[in-house]
Amino acid sequence: MRAGEQPANPARTAWPARLHVVTGKGGTGKTSVAAALALTLAADGRRTLLVEVEGRQGIAQLFGTDPLPYEERKIATAAHGGEVRALAVDPEEALLEYLDMFYKLGAAGRALRKFGAIDFATTIAPGLRDILLTGKVKEATTRSVNQRRVYDAVVLDAPPTGRIGRFLNVTAEAARLAKVGPIKTQSEGVANLLRSPMTAVHIVTLLEEMPVQETVDAMAELTALNIPVGRIIVNGTQPPLQAAKVTQAELRRGLTAAGLPADRATVTGLHAEVRNHLTRRALEDSLRTDLVELGRPLVELPLLAEGVDRTGLNVLAERLSQAD
After folding, report:
1. Which has the closest alpha carbon to 37: 12, 65, 71, 69?
2. Is the Cβ–Cβ distance between 199 and 227 less than 8 Å?
3. 0.70 exceeded by the pTM?
4. What are the C-alpha distances in Å from 273 to residues 267, 284, 304?
5. Which of 101, 174, 266, 284 has the most crowded CB, counting CB atoms within 10 A?
6. Is 292's pLDDT higher than 60?
7. pLDDT, mean of residues 129-140
């Protein structure tokens, strides 16, 4: 390895994009997965940026930090000296930055805030909000200093699957409507990035019917928009179970041998639980098959019994680093 060169990060082979968009139905744990992926990609001295755009401060809660400002700041150290920075994109601050960048309205732009003009603009034109959010993500992804990328990867904790297509396609619509000027140029740049090999949209799901159906729908929508889908990430999975039918008589004998109550009510209730559990696992197997048939690489993450804290994030990051 040459002097100054970063060591190889095996995860870069499995996760080759520069911009990783993480979406999923609400409640599937997409923010936790996005955070874990940022840790994975920051291993071996790399630097990643973890971005949220929904104003929920979910990243701060996961890492136990103060609420994130509109400022990129270090929130974690990854394996072997890597670094994760985080940013909560605020539409108002992004608009002020946009006005200063393209129209040189630094002080004048800030004065608009006093009159409520910025809130008014993003309210009457809801699509403007998403244009500003995706524009900031694009800027961070492509930013360079001394001809070197500032971030090796950017991970976006994106809106849920129900509106991911609209969120990612808004700049393409703006580019189509705008004839000339900075808005058209900026929108085309974002739209092109989101449709390039630099981007991958990963969909987080659970082995439950509604999240799986939303995953199928989101993949179809993104494919129709020519936005590249990366991996399907199945969160909260449990180890394989050797399914077997258990009779009430067998349960009674087992309970008696263990010195536990083996009355009729106990045995009947336990037998019903076993039957329901086996039915549930059979449904999970069927849903897993549906996901495999989508034809995208599948990654399964374990159910964390203690919830998702920093230790749990490290467990998820390690599993993501082992993806084929």
Report:
1. 12
2. yes
3. yes
4. 10, 16, 22
5. 174
6. yes
7. 86
Q: Which residue has the tokens 């490290």?
A: 314
Nearest CA to 205 out of 229, 227, 236 is that of 236
Residue pair 135/186 in contact by the 8 Å Cβ criterion: yes
- How far is 231 from 200, CA to CA, in rounded Å? 8
Predicted local confidence at residue 51, as pLDDT: 96
The DSSP call for residue 79 is G
Measuring CA to CA, which residue among 126, 162, 139 is closest to residue 27? 162
Residue range 295-302: mean pLDDT, rounded: 96
Q: Convert the pLDDT of each residue in 245-272 to its tens digit.
A: 788 888 888 889 988 888 888 888 888 8
The C-alpha atoms of residue 277 and residue 244 are separated, in whole angstroms, by 11
Q: Contact, 218 vs 39, CB < 8 A?
A: no
CB 300 within 8 A of CB 17: no
Q: What are 169-223's pLDDT values in tens digits?
A: 988 887 776 665 666 777 888 999 999 999 999 999 999 999 999 999 999 999 9
d(CA 15, CA 13): 6
Contacts with 97 (C-beta within 8 Å, 6 or more apart), sequence order: 136
Reading the block at residue 146, the tokens are 């001394």
Query: In angstroms, rounded to a whole number, what is the distance separating the alpha carbons of residues 68 and 129?
Result: 19
Angstrom distance (rounded) from CA 124 to CA 33? 33
Q: What is the three-class DSSP state of 239?
A: coil
Which tokens go with 181?
């000027």
CB 197 within 8 A of CB 17: yes
Please choose, from the candidates 249, 253, 203, 199, the residue with its C-alpha nearest in 3D space to the C-alpha of residue 228: 199
